[in-house]
Design goal:
It is built from 14 helices and 15 strands. By secondary structure, the protein is an alpha/beta fold. Keywords: Hydrolase, Metal-binding.
Length: about 525
């Protein structure tokens, strides 16, 4: 097996970056993730460049910013012309296997309006081969449950209700009704082991997706009681809903619109109404779901160890986006706060064993994952890719021209479960924001709403908007110009390096030889 190069890309859902023990979350027990951090490089300042799931995964797997791939919401199609990681891997001889989902809506020009994929919140991205489907509508998982002999309730999602007829929907210390051996995390793990055991000694690429710690926030036994609510970090939020909502109209909308039912089966009321006790319990359950995933990863890692493949395999651990988890009185992945955008990135590169355990502080983005994998496998990074390979960082060398700030976007146009446009008086193409952020400052630009500006040195949790403060006027201007320049420099450029000349077509990326 010497010289073989395999890639295991682990993509969890809704795992925020500050729930990583290697980065300080000492309350969390994840021995297998800890091992990965010890043997790889952990990137402290890593963000997804878009939320929610569909846009985030589109950026992760195409290497493009939201402004270029334009799959701006889960329900918005991804243009079929875009090259993605799956298609690129096929060009270099890999069969890109996928377990889980990508939350991709197909290009309507490539199919018809009656395509059933348009009735779901996303399906599989073209280019990958599914070896453990979850979408559409979790049919793959529910079918597996039935095949295992589990009797599904009439309303299938009732398996995630708390155990017991007297259970009250909402944040709970009770386990869910499905046993851990039949959980969705176990399902994905079984699919992964089945795939890997069938590959023999052939090189492979596997996108191993997990749905958790995505809601509903209810864990299987014994994970439901693994953590005590009182040991969880307290939420970071303003003293009242009114104080929080006063910061910005968009924040005010979400504080009013987000419902608990999106996070707890059959729960009632607004997410912003959760009290500190309920938030602590929710966080304990969230941590339990993470430990369950970690145990599942332990089974996959053990198989790679047993078969001698661990040493030949690049392992990447990341998430599609984060989770507010009660911070700023919010639930979910929305808006502009760090909790929604900061996510884990851990890379174990067999070529850099001497770097194991290191934490890198460079600014990295989800669009960097695709070019990193392609470079490691010897492929060509597409000209229009907005990301950069982080292999130099993983090797301990930061390029002189590495990015000086983070950038990310959120398009908050109407979707079937939320309609901010009417409330905020916006057209759908005005319902967007972009963030540029470095160690010192954070600027949030809206297409048609007032901007935000935060002094991160004095206000790291972003409570005081200084956009209209005369003392910061010059800095607001500078960061706004930085945002504009960034967008201009990353405008779609698939063909812009070609030009016609009197001598024929010229590729400006290919050096010309002197006559």
């Amino acid at each position: 097996m010497a010289g073989r190069r395999n890639v295991l890309l682990i993509v969890v859902d809704q795992w925020r970056a500050d729930f990583i023990p290697h980065l300080g979350a000492s309350f969390l027990r994840t021995p297998n993730l800890d091992r990965l951090c010890r043997e790889g490089v952990t990137f402290r300042n890593h963000v997804t460049t878009a939320v929610p799931c569909g846009p985030a995964r589109a950026s992760l797997l195409t290497g493009l910013y939201l402004m270029n791939h334009r799959a701006v919401q889960n329900t918005v199609p991804l243009d079929a012309r875009h090259l993605n990681l799956g298609k690129a891997l096929r060009q270099i001889g890999y069969d890109p296997a996928l377990i889980g989902y990508t939350t991709s809506t197909p290009d309507p020009r490539s199919t018809g309006p009656r395509d059933p994929r348009f009735t779901t919140l996303g399906d599989l991205m073209d280019g990958f081969r599914s070896v453990g489907a979850f979408e559409p509508s979790m049919d793959g998982y529910f079918g597996w449950l039935a095949h295992q002999g589990y009797r599904l309730p009439e309303r299938r999602t009732d398996i995630w209700l708390p155990e017991g007829e007297d259970a009250v929907p909402g944040a709970t210390s009770r386990p869910c009704r499905i046993p851990a051996a039949l959980s969705d995390s176990s399902y994905f793990t079984e699919r992964a082991l089945t795939y890997l055991k069938g590959k023999g000694d052939k090189p492979w690429f596997l996108h191993l997706g997990y749905w958790r710690p995505h809601p509903p926030f209810v864990a299987c036994s014994p994970y439901h009681e693994m953590y005590r609510p009182e040991d969880m970090p307290a939420p970071i939020r303003a003293g009242s809903l009114e104080d929080e909502a006063a910061q910005h109209p968009l924040l005010g909308h979400y504080l009013d619109a987000i419902r608990q039912a999106s996070f707890f089966e059959r729960a009632q009321g607004r997410g912003a109404e959760l009290d500190p006790r309920e938030i602590a319990q929710m966080r304990a359950t969230y941590a339990g779901l993470m430990s369950e995933i970690d145990d599942c990863l332990g089974r996959v890692f053990a198989y790679l160890d047993e078969t001698g493949q661990w040493e030949d395999t690049m392992v990447i651990f990341t998430s599609d986006h984060g989770e507010q988890l009660g911070d700023h009185h919010l639930l979910g992945k929305i808006g502009y706060f760090d909790e929604s955008f900061r996510i884990p990135l851990v890379i174990k590169d067999p070529d850099t064993r001497d770097q194991g355990g290191r934490i890198d502080d460079a600014f990295t983005e989800s669009v960097d994952v695709m070019p990193t994998i392609l470079e490691w496998l010897g492929g060509e990074i597409p000209r229009n890719c907005d990301g950069r390979s982080v292999l130099p960082l993983a090797h301990g060398s930061k390029p002189a021209d590495w990015r000086k700030f983070l950038s990310y976007e959120f398009d908050f146009r109407d979707v079937f479960y939320d309609q901010p446009e009417k409330r905020l008086g916006l057209d759908m193409d005005e319902a967007s924001l972009m963030v540029v952020q470095d160690e010192r400052r954070k600027y949030v630009h809206f297409a048609a709403l007032p901007p935000l500006f935060f002094d991160l040195e004095k206000d790291p949790h972003q409570f005081r908007n200084l956009a209209q403060d005369p003392a910061y006027a010059a800095e607001v201007r500078d960061y706004a110009q930085r945002a504009l320049s960034h967008r201009m420099a990353h405008a779609e450029r698939t063909l812009t390096h070609f030009r016609a000349t009197p001598h024929g077509l010229e590729n400006r990326l290919v050096p010309t030889t002197a006559a």
